Amino acid sequence: MRYSSVLWLPVTLGLLIGAAAAGAPWAFLGAAVLCYAAEFAVGRSLPDAARPLRWGQMTPGARVLIRQGALVLLLVQAGDAGRTTIALAAVGLLVVDWLRAAILAGAVASRRVNRLPFATLNLGEGEPALPGPDPVWQARLILLLESHADLLPLLFGTAGLMLGVPALVFAGLLGTAAAAAATAAAQTPRLRRMRALLNTDRMTRDVQRRVKRYKPEVVLYFTGPVTTVYQANMWLETLERLERKAMVLVRSPEVVGALAPTRLPVVCITRAEEMMNFDLGTVKVALYPGNTGKNLHLLREEHIKHVFVGHGDSDKGPSSNPVSKVFDEVWVAGPAGRDRYRNSDAGVRDEAIVEVGRPQLGEITTEPSGGPVPTVLYAPTWEGWDNEHGYSSLLGMGERIVRTLLEQGPRLRVIYRPHPYTGRRLPEAAAVHERLMRMIERGNRDGAGGHRVVTGADASLYECFNRSDMLITDISSVISDYIPSLKPYVVTNPEGMDEGAFRTEFPSASAAYLLGPDCRELPDILAVAATPGQDPLAAERRRLRDYLLGPEHPDAMTRFAAAVDALAQAGPRSTMYGGSRKAVTAGSEPA
After folding, report:
1. pTM, full prediction
2. Buried b (16+ CB within 10 A) or exposed e, 86-123
3. What are the residues whose beta carbons fall under 8 Å from the beta carbon of 352, sequence distance 6 or more?
4. Alpha-carbon distance 119 to 250, whole Å?
5. What is the per-residue pLDDT across 333-377, written as a single tens digit (0 to 9) for each?
């Protein structure tokens, strides 16, 4: 089982207690080494180990107490320490635990209170400064106090018994106390801010005043973590081009700092109570790029029309999520998106689906990459929240794909751009990603040169499209975003499904070259990229472009703006679909 590795922790703790009961310092030292090795190994191989450990009442604090109790038992059983030493050591450990608890409580309070209730950008004067992160050394000390506060007492105490100087245990206690004091001193400046930050009334009034003065009509509402901020970033430029005043509303200061450069006003409201009491009376349309629980804090506003815009159209199962029916409308790129909902059990009314194109794709060109040799972009999706919705080729095919590309030598260049979420659920995916980067580094060292790994803000996905002549990807929104280039693309078929069944289930692959699990087709497919004009699927890609993204005229930005205007001018929710307004379909004008 996936969580079975956590069993090493109770096993090693049992060995430690057994060595202590036997009064054997050397065995105790060996068991202690195994304990810390198990802590490191479990933390490295299973990032979410905290969950099963909580189930078994084996939290970091509990493990510290067990090891400390084993040390006291060793002092008693070894027979070399006097009663006074044992008693003082026990009291010292207790004092250290109280210090540790106080510092950890202070760290939690500091993090929570220093999360400003409000933060703004581009909204005028008086914008509160975002608190910076804790220094790295301070964060590491807090982590050590949480899970390894027993380390120094165990090492010094065991060494003291081996050397016949049991009092060495106090050196370990003093070292731990000094680390705790340094951490407490570092926390003090942030804790002093608590009193000012707890008084949010003035800050609330100030931000409310500036928002009312701006009078936003459209809000992009994003509530995901920093790792998903790309979902909001892809809409910023589109909203900047609207004639109606638009604003970005987020729920954590970290996201404010991670947003792409924008002229739009940005408001961060961290707490639910402030969010639900904040006056957004001028807002007529709210756009949601993701389905998250905190969406409810804005969905409750009945005077606003709520629209799910998502963060890309794809054939993935979650792209027709039944949760979407809570929105007034669902905006998709083209007829393919409408068919996806119509053919699913999501329960979204057909009249609530609006085809608006993908305004973000205007920068994608049909021109070749312009390089001396063809460039292939490998952009796999991530492993998904569960195996049922896993479409990634990374684990089963990634290394074979990149190896085949690199074997082409100087005749081909490779761009590898992983999904930002790669490795979030499966450590094995992160490990494959690391190996792919090393393979590409070796390829560059071996003389081929020009290969790139693109992550984070190195280059946008659309820049990678324009720098490529062919795409290799998985079932994801990358396909529909690449289609405007009209360049050949390859879709992986990791399960080896029948070709006809695969194209039927995933319409976005209808104009793709399919790649099976063994990748044996790849060399022949690559020949297409090297011979412009010899592409038998070129005509099918033009047809597919209109199906996935809607017609070229009017352009997507015009259709998107028309959909915003139509919804902003619509009446209350109860009359929206009572015959007074038609859903805006591709190319239609506001009702």
Report:
1. 0.69
2. bebbbebbeebbebbeebbebbeebeebbbbbbbbbeb
3. 325, 327, 328, 329, 330, 577, 583
4. 9
5. 999 989 888 888 778 888 999 999 999 988 899 998 888 888 999
3-state secondary structure 13-77: HHHHHHHHHCCCHHHHHHHHHHHHHHHHHHHHHCCCCHHHHHHCCCCHHHHHHHHHHHHHHHHHH
- Token pair in block for residue 408: 């082409």
Which parts of 438-505 are beta strand (E)? Answer: 452-453, 470-473, 489-492
Angle made by CA atoms 212, 218, 219, in degrees to the nearest 5: 85
Show the tokens assigned to 556.
Answer: 């997507």
Phi, psi (deg, nearest 5) at residue 82: -75, 170
**Preceding amide of 60 cis, omega within 30:** no
Q: How far is the CA of 576 from the CAs of 304, 335, 356, in angstroms?
A: 12, 22, 18
Secondary structure (3-state) at 328:
coil
State whether residue 585 is helix, strand or coil: coil
Closest CA to 471 of 546, 572, 543, 377: 377
- 336: helix, strand or coil: helix
3-state SS, residue 6: helix
Sheet with 489-492: list strands edge to edge. 452-453, 413-416, 375-379, 470-473, 489-492, 513-515
Mapped to the 3 state alphabet, what secondary structure does 191-251 carry?
HHCHHHHHCCHHHHHHHHHHHHHHCCCEEEEECCCHHHCHHHHHHHHHHHCCCCCEEEEEC
Residue 398 is classified by DSSP as: I
Distance CA 527, CA 530 (A): 5
Element (DSSP H or E) covering residue 416: strand 413-416
| Cβ–Cβ under 8 Å, residues 489 and 473 | yes
Determine phi and psi for 24, rounding to 5 degrees: -110, 100
Other CB atoms within 10 Å distance of the CB of residue 231:
18
Which residue carries 């044992």 as its tokens?
86
**Which tokens sit at 270?**
């961290």
Using DSSP's 3-state secondary structure scheme, residue 498 falls into: coil
Could you tell me the strand order of the sheet in which 118-121 lies? 118-121, 266-269, 246-250, 218-222, 285-288, 305-308, 329-332, 353-355
pLDDT digits (tens, 9 = 90+) for 116-156: 678 888 987 656 555 555 555 666 667 677 777 888 888 88
Say which residue the tokens 């081909």 belong to.
412
- DSSP labels, 421-449: TTTSS-HHHHHHHHHHHHHHHHHHHTT--
The rounded distance, in Å, linking the Cα atoms of 197 and 111 is 12
